[in-house]
Amino acid sequence: MAQRMLKFVDLGREMPQKRDALARRSDFDEVYRQYAAEKAAAQASRCSQCGVPFCQTHCPLHNNIPDWLKLTAEGRLREAYELSQETNTFPEICGRICPQDRLCEGNCVIEQAGHGTVTIGAIEKYLTDTAFEEGWVDAIRPVTERPESVGIIGAGPGGLAAADRLRRQGFQVTVYDRYDRAGGLMTYGIPSFKLEKDVVMKRNAQLEDGGVEFALNTDVGVNMSFDDIRERHDAVIVATGVYKSRDIGGPGAGLGGIHQAIDYLTASNRVGFGDVVPEFESGELNAAGKDVVVIGGGDTAMDCVRTAVRQGATSVKCLYRRDRANMPGSQREVANAEEEGVEFVWRTAPKGFVGADAVTGVRLIHMRLGAPDQTGRQTPEEIAGSEETLKADLVVKALGFEAEPLPRLWGAAGLEVTRWGTVKADFRTHATALPGVYAVGDIVRGASLVVWAIRDGREAADAIAEALRDAAAVAAE
């Protein structure tokens, strides 16, 4: 083992410098600065190179983390990047938005020993950003072109990961998406302070330069049928994600000024691209000068509250029915939000909204945590007589997402779905009940992580490649 490793006893954990909270409130630039080469090498050298790397085991992509940490510590950055790219289609994205505290870093052996985890995500980001700067990110150039084609519905992480994998093997790939830019929620759902958009656009450009065809502004079931796509291609991947927002009712739920998180975040991201967004220009989806209340406790809620701060809201409050320890969002994101001035109103739930034509307040009730439910989480219970009204000019509902009814929207009765509306697919091959049709990502799993969608896309691509090669071999006999 190289002398450069095992430095965790003498060297403490150190993240890249975080920009001052006051400064970052005024822009959408990323929160964390980049490592310098020496700092990245030093932090990588803290890896213990343990015999059973739990970081790798708990990564959905099973990235070769100890190996590329060792290469980074030795200054062999190009080799480190190439090794990270072998198992991960988008390491620069996972390094930024994966919840490392729950996956690789949260299971780091030296973290369990009390020495502080290796900063895996920050080093992964550093490696790929360096690779782009140095020109190490190779263009997609298949050794042999194949005649078979694959249509992918959805240009999010699952669909793009499959497109990359299939194109590298020479298959002809067309990606269909309802939006005008590829990337799915990476483009329009996640704010730039977590994932700068040029990072996503670079990968989109790499795919397009490598021969992947994008059919954007194509809404399947509206301006193109699902059957047409199946007829055009030898195989089809459904990678639409889940975009149907969960909702809450109650008195006043139809008042103006109450919006879904996806609409609010999409408008903000479009403005960041320089698009003209009438709903933003009119103030409807602009938090400037408003008292903002966001309902929810996941990462989408964190994206909304931190966006509102940057838009110049007068105040930003987040309502969540459980406490801090039980919220589903990243604790790192909660800490960042608090630093930026967001107020969390724990153990509260909305009961309705007040106002004439537009919302002026949220009626809430305080909660206590009762007995655990079947999942082990304590069940929130209302405290009688604890209602109050919270001032609000803009309310954003960030309650999660559900699957759209694809069989009905697409006229695809044979596309089997679960009772939650997600598509049924084999957990190894990702094949659905329809011949030649596969499904990956959130449309199968429900709302989940980008890294799981990448894994699904890669696995489905490999299963399709094997099936098409086998079919070609049989036809040639």
TrEMBL record:
This is NAD(P)-dependent oxidoreductase. Residues 25-135 form the Dihydroprymidine dehydrogenase domain. PANTHER family: GLUTAMATE SYNTHASE [NADPH] SMALL CHAIN, GLUTAMATE SYNTHASE [NADPH] SMALL CHAIN-RELATED. Residues 150-457 form the FAD/NAD(P)-binding domain. The lineage of its organism: Bacteria, Pseudomonadati, Pseudomonadota, Alphaproteobacteria, Rhodobacterales. It comes from the Bacteria. SUPFAM superfamilies: alpha-helical ferredoxin, Nucleotide-binding domain. InterPro entries: DPD_II, FAD/NAD-bd_sf, FAD/NAD-binding_dom, GltD-like, Helical_ferredxn. Its cofactor is [4Fe-4S] cluster. Keywords: 4Fe-4S, Iron, Iron-sulfur, Metal-binding, NADP, Oxidoreductase. Pfam families: Fer4_20, Pyr_redox_2. One of its GO terms (molecular function) is oxidoreductase activity.
